[in-house]
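User: For a reading group we're discussing how well predicted structures match intuition. Take Transcriptional regulator, LacI family. Before you show the prediction, I'll give you the sequence so everyone sees exactly what went in.
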Amino acid sequence: MATIEDVAKLAGLSRTTVSRVINDQPYVTDEKKQRILHAMDELGYVPNSSARRLRSQRTETIAVLLPRITNPFFGNLIESMEQKASKAGYQVIVCQTHDSKKKELDYLQLLKTKQVDGIIMTSLVNDWELIHPYLENGPIVLCNEYMENKPVPMIHMDHRQAAYEAVQHLIEQGCKHLAFVHGEQEGHLTLERKRGFEQALLDHGLTSSENQVIQGPMDVGDGRQLFSYIKKEMPHIDGVFTGSDEVAAGMIYEAAHSDWKIPEDLSVVGFDNQMLSLLMVPSITTIEQPVKKLADKTVEVLLKQLLHPDPVRGKSHVFDHKLVVRGSTRKEKLILH
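Assistant: Thanks. Here is the predicted 3D structure of Transcriptional regulator, LacI family, as structure tokens, for the group to look at:
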């Protein structure tokens, strides 16, 4: 097995110079760096990453906290984050909280115990007062989730405006009795979508008392149950903003086995523009999030925080979204995008 001394001998340089290149330290010319890299490649030499991390007091590991990996949005998000981090020499570990306050705090301990260099949070279930102290142990970046006036970088889209546009679209399609559906947790992101829902109703002269907010549904199975519940208990509802393509898909599937038609009897809007939204019949009108842009920017911001800690960290990066109109709301004619 080749050693660092073997690399130095083959490259015709000192052991110290080789060490500088391995640890990505300055003051080595490009010509010498190339000689060393060529020697390492020829000898098949692989640096001891554990020793390098110990010297730098870094783990070169990032933790990403998310509710559940089975949600395609988070699956795609984590894939893009891992690719971006890997190019920078960092590993990513996935921490599923399942919306548990205890699990979220347990994973934040990874930062306190120096098992990771930084943490990305894609959702929040605890109050900020419980999360804030962990900033003393390393950088935290919020992605997708966001809160007002908090000292952390936040990378997200405008969920209030996205909800507003989704509900406005339903109203423009003739819907007058609407429902807004969200998951079990009522975090800041959900509140922002709810505000968008309520503002759209207000701007179009529809009163909140005639419309519904339904909490709980998260996946396809929940969507099936939700459709049955609306059909039986709230048959006056003619438009639903689900906040989830999975829930929307469940509703459309169940409707196909009933005497109701989508969108003639009930219009449905999802969220995220997952592949599932194209496969349903009718296909799902949805909000498209720029997943790769969100992921890349989040990792970029976190790595900058690791290299150059910034005491003023509360900057938001807001990305555009897109309302993708398809068959689940378009009553006049089904046109696929």
